[in-house]
Amino acid sequence: MSQTAATPSHPVTDRVLHAMQVSKRGCDELLPEADWLTKLARSEATGVPLRIKLGLDPTAPDIHVGHTVVLNKMRQLQDLGHRVIFLIGDFTSMIGDPSGRNTTRPPLTREQIEANAQTYYRQASTVLDPDKTEIRYNSEWSDPLGARGMIQLAARYTVARMMERNDFAERFKAGTPISVHEFLYPLMQGYDSVALKSDLELGGTDQKFNLLVGRALQGEYGQEPQCILTMPLLEGLDGVEKMSKSKNNYIGITEPANTMFAKLLSISDVLMWKYFTLLSFRSEAEIAKLKAEVEGGRNPKEAKVMLAKEITARFHSAAAADAAEADFENRARGGIPDEIPELSLSGAPLGIGALLKQANLAPSSSEAMRLVDGGGVRIDGAVVSDKGLKLERGTYVVQVGKRKFARVTLA
């Protein structure tokens, strides 16, 4: 018989209310809130930490700050004293999760999964406290299930409920093929929650269905069902699309400090506040005070610099963040950064379009011409206005826009 988290039988103290406030900060949904309050009160009264699960399929080796939104929430819950379980979906990666897609995602090889998982966790550890993080692989319990166990698990969930998932329903309606093995993905992710006896599972808004399957299966196995907490997807630098490498609107957490700082300063004044809520470790009261000051006339750039320095320091160091700020200000004044790429090209005299393309400062000669037209190209600090310019032998500092530089030796 399934169990539920009943009305709190332990006192709801100020510390419990604070923990609830931290849990809800920036989240999209926390379901059911009453059950989570009960779990928090019980943990506070008994001193037994709650088990917080985050499952990640290591489908790509590198992560950007959009991925860290849910990791930040895990860190906040760690700081409250709870146990974080960083679950590597090495078994489920071999199935391929179709969440949010209208086609099946191809499975990875075992070697790809292991290499990606190591890189992913190393990067995630810049946010999580490794000493308070339990790392698990879901092949631990998924491989031993075998065919008999898989059939028994599948018997605990209906096709009708599976078809409530939006992407399955839409693909079925459109006549797009759905492979039977795809139904196994949410089942296996849900079974992870059973195996780990998780109290709370986190994920992006696109994972809500899978998280709810875990809650349902725990009930089927006689466990107290987990609560689920979904975090919003972070818009990228354009302020429109979800942060994504394919959209080229991302901030990679392994990017150089100067690049990271400059990218953060490029976000809009409006989007900045969402970044503060989801990425900053400042308290909500601090952020509210800062926002009120900006609304009262304080320069929003000052707030943005604070955000950029905090995030850059997290993934590099405070000294690197200070240096990145100095570098940015130097560029803004038209100065040249201390460190810029150096390369040698041949073919002098070389046209400006070909030079920009060969120096990787423009994707094509036509785009280089457009940049010259817009006044965005400088040679040794002087704006280039002549699209027919040819450069003779020599060394030049070439600048495109505010952030792209190269020291080119032309022979």
UniProtKB/TrEMBL annotation:
Q: What are the annotated GO cellular component locations?
A: cytosol
Location of the protein in the cell: Cytoplasm
RNA-binding S4 domain: from which residue to which, for each copy?
355-394
Matching entries from Pfam families are given as: S4, tRNA-synt_1b
The Enzyme Commission number assigned here is 6.1.1.1
Gene Ontology BP terms? tyrosyl-tRNA aminoacylation
Task: List the InterPro entries.
Answer: aa-tRNA-synth_I_CS, aa-tRNA-synth_Ic, Rossmann-like_a/b/a_fold, S4_RNA-bd, S4_RNA-bd_sf, Tyr-tRNA-ligase, Tyr-tRNA-ligase_bac-type, Tyr-tRNA-ligase_bac_2
Q: According to its UniProt record, which reaction does this protein catalyse?
A: tRNA(Tyr) + L-tyrosine + ATP = L-tyrosyl-tRNA(Tyr) + AMP + diphosphate + H(+)
Q: Give the main location.
A: cytoplasm
Among SUPFAM superfamilies, the record links this protein to:
Alpha-L RNA-binding motif, Nucleotidylyl transferase
Per UniProt, which keywords does this protein have? Answer: Aminoacyl-tRNA synthetase, ATP-binding, Cytoplasm, Ligase, Nucleotide-binding, Protein biosynthesis, RNA-binding
Q: Where is this motif: 'HIGH' region?
A: 58-67
Residue positions annotated to bind ATP are 245
Taxonomically, the superkingdom here is Bacteria
- Residue interval(s) of motif 'KMSKS' region: 242-246
Query: Which PANTHER family would you find in this protein's record?
Result: TYROSINE--TRNA LIGASE (PTHR11766:SF1), TYROSYL-TRNA SYNTHETASE (PTHR11766)
Q: Which family does it belong to?
A: Belongs to the class-I aminoacyl-tRNA synthetase family. TyrS type 2 subfamily.
Say what the protein does: Catalyzes the attachment of tyrosine to tRNA(Tyr) in a two-step reaction: tyrosine is first activated by ATP to form Tyr-AMP and then transferred to the acceptor end of tRNA(Tyr).
HAMAP family tied to this protein:
Tyr_tRNA_synth_type2
Identify this protein by name: Tyrosine--tRNA ligase
Taxonomy of origin reads:
Bacteria, Pseudomonadati, Pseudomonadota, Betaproteobacteria, Burkholderiales
